Amino acid sequence: MKDTEMPISRDSALGRLLGADKAPALPKDFADRVVAQTADRAAPLPQARSGNGGVRRWRSGRRLAAGAVIFGALASTAAATGLLDDLPIALPSPEKVWATITGQSDASEPVDPPIERTPAQNEPETIKPVKIEGPIDSPEELEEAFRRVDEVRTNRADTRRERIDRRLDNAIDRRREQGLPVPTPEQEQRLRDRIDRVRERREERVDQRLDERRDEMRERIENGEELSREDFIREQRDAVGRPGRRDRLERFRDMTPEQRRSRIRQIREQRQQGLRELIEEEDASQPPAVGEPDNASGSTEEGNEKI
Amino acid sequence: MTSDGEFYSDRQDDEAQLIARIAARDEHAFRSTIERHAERLHRIAYRMMGDAHEAEDIAQEAMLRLWDHAPRLDASAGARGIKLGGWLKRVAVNLTIDRLRLKKRTSDSEVPERADDAPLADDQIQSEEEGAAARALIADLPERQRAAIVLTYYEEMPNAEAAVVMDMNIKAFESLLHRARAALRKKFEDQGGAA
């Protein structure tokens, strides 16, 4: 060992110089301060998973996979080259193998007949939108088109009603899970009744508009005019009448992100308003101040209605 | 025995119990661990940093890390025979090295200015000057060499124990220590001293 690498003697000049630097003592209240800091300390993170086990598992898994691939390749090669035919090995056919497993003679025969899937009783039957193909020029054709459109409307109304019920159930469940007050059965029934009333009013308004429109169409047919698909689409009327869903969507797209967030927040609050009012207000018979509960039902679908 | 009269007598059973109690959030146990180990951590950090305030921060952070990691240490203490003193010193040394590296990137001044400029007696002035010279000498070393000198010279730790604290094998540590001593002597001689 060189002299320069020898331990430093405390009696040497260097040792004396190093020894001149005295370390200060910790403050008296150091322990108190550290203990006080533990109160603000976040809980420690859970222990990370050990990497070794994972690597080992991956390695053994990789070996198994590689082994399976190699075995498959060798077996395929042997079968493809006819090697198995040349060897005195009796290979059973797949049907025989299957029969030994299942105990049935014909492996190709399915064990159970396929189960036909029937729609559940409470599952709404979906009806495709009505397609108007070609011009309509007779009253019979027109009435048939109306009948088919009504069928679709009825189906959509049922779906919408179920969706509202489901949303209401979910909202109540969420409040219950969060420990928030939930409506009593009486309050819940009143809420459902109110939603029904709002829906009926809306449907009445729509029916009234449809009747007026249909009368116009009947009149046009009687006058010898032909009606096309466009006459049946609600959007055409929206283009000349009140702004429809598309306009609202366009306005929404033109908003800044902040405005959009604010609008979404507002819509959500409106959706919650009906339920919240019923729970918080003692007088459940008071009408809600902001928005209608029906806003929660996705009433904007109205814009897609066909005449 | 260290220069301050403390023994390195980390008794395994006591320490395992202490860790278990800290893991169970026993403040009394934590306080007694602070009283037992914090002074030494502060001293190590101070010798390496040359700044009492930063050394105090490091000692505090090391103790708080013990508080955070105690449940995990408790789980592995029995199986791996973790020595609390060694673990704390390792944390303190690593924290100090991190700070030194950060400081090197953000500042040119290695040795802090003296905080108190009030008139001092002659012998006190001389003592301060010698202390500052010693700190400057240590501060000229790379971080890990500083740690090696502080642990073995100031804290009088055996090479094997210092190697464990620095998470190195003994050969590598001794090589580092030799380089550190040689560098220290050379700098001292360059300043006009006779090692």
Description:
The complex is a heterodimer of chains A (307) and B (195). Chain A is mostly helical and 307 residues long. Chain A contains eleven helices and no strands. Helix content of chain A is 59%, strand content 0%. Chain B has 195 residues and is mainly α. Helix content of chain B is 74%, strand content 0%. Chain B is globular, with a radius of gyration of 18 Å. Chain B starts with 11 loop residues before the first helix and ends in a 5-residue tail after the last helix. Chain A binds chain B through residues 1-2, 4-8, 12-14, 17-27, 30-31, 33-35, 37-38, 41, 44, 47, and chain B through 3, 27, 30-31, 34-35, 38-39, 42-43, 46-47, 52, 55-56, 59-60, 63-64, 67-69, 71-72, 75, 127, 130-135, 137-138, 152-154, 178, 181-182, 184-186, 188, 193-195.
The overall pLDDT of chain B, averaged over residues, is 82
Oligomerization state: heterodimer
Number of distinct helices of chain B: 8
Q: Which sequence of SSEs, written as H and E, runs from N to C of chain A?
A: HHHHHHHHHHH
Give the CA-CA distance, first to last residue of chain A. Answer: 102 Å
Q: Helix and strand string of chain B, N-terminal first? A: HHHHHHHH
Calculate Rg of chain A over CA atoms.
39 Å
Instruction: Work out the strand percent of chain B.
Output: under 5%
Summarize model confidence as the mean pLDDT of chain A. 72
Largest interface: A-B, 31 and 47 residues
In the predicted model, the low-confidence regions of chain B spanning at least 5 consecutive residues are 1-10
Describe the sheet with the most strands of chain A.
none
Strand coverage percent of chain A: under 5%
The best one-word shape of chain B is: globular
